Fold this sequence. Notes:
The chain is mainly alpha-helical. The chain has 8 helices and 2 strands; from the N terminus they run H-H-H-H-H-E-E-H-H-H. Helices cover 66% and strands 3% of the residues.
Amino acid sequence: MQLxxxxxxxxxxxxxxxxxxxxxxxxxxxxxxxxxxxxxWIVLNILGLFFPPLGFVIALAAGYALGALARTLVNGPLxxxxxxxxxxxxxxxxxxxxxxxxxxxxxALSMPISANSASGGFxxxxxxxxxxxxxxxRDSAVQQxxxxxxxxxxxxxxxxxxxxxxxxxPDKASR
Length: 175
């Protein structure tokens, strides 16, 4: 099996690398923000099912609160850990990796979908996208890994009972 990357994969990998580098530079605070963001992501996903506009306001407030919490912890109880260069860089890089993986997964699955009357399902990405964009996303190794079922070596995000589907594409989960 030969892995072919598209321009979409290249952009996603640059974003992942940038997230990791930012994490290494920010240190322990990036890990705090990443873990907090994971919790907020799950909570917002649950709340979004009931009242979507509230999610935007909560996300803004949570982002500010996570930044303030990270600053307080790094300048207080975790100051010694953050001053130790190598451990802080490793923890920050891990935080950047977590945020980066979430970012590229969400971006790879954020294109519009369209109904497929022949199969009764849907096409992802939509066939109405410009050819250059549709082909780039459709042939993306990242998108294919996320979309293919586990039996074919993927994560099966579009599977009917996928919890990952509800996290990454909550607006499309019921389609």
